[in-house]
User: What shape does this take?
Amino acid sequence: MRWPRAETLLLVLLLAACSGEKADPVASIPPGQGESSPVAAVESLVDAINVPDFADASRLAVPGQAALASLAEGASFADVAEALRSGDQEVAANFWSGFAQGTGSFLVGSVDAEDGGTYTESGVVFSLVDITPANGESRRLLLRDVDGYRIDLFASFGSGLADKMVAPVERLLSTQTDDARLILLDLKEIVPSLLAAAGQPDTPSEVSQQLLALVEVITRVT
Assistant: This one.
């Protein structure tokens, strides 16, 4: 697996969850379940991206993670907290919409998905799926069983998020509001995902350091 270049990842994030545009014309997206297996979840994501149907794709991200990821591009604490409280399906739909236009182009067209086994980090079991597009190099996605199998955004794409999240998380630590406390509590839940991303054999050392730096800031929370 080759990690995407930093400038491409930046484009993905700029187009993703905190862009001002909606991925679908609907007013809201109801919550949905994941899939019965890791490979089925990836295949469903590929199908949704190819339609495109980003409302359906939204259910294939671990709930709450798209809202947290929007911190990387300057989403307000109020908006992130509201998405965590009421559901971040629309944010997730926007994430996949931006993803499909950038690094996620490897999920467009014919894609072969294969079960890559499991990886355990801090007691959390991640399922690995290796995907090979018709024209391109193989990539790996990490999934978790959260009401069905879904893509773990931080375990799979944390390399493009970590360095931009350190400053917002440091601000959260000094912000004494209910919104900040809620976000910090949910950030603690992604620590195993960040460690899983850092622990993958193909993760460059500099990327691992960025992931671990974010973990260090998050774990200052008492």
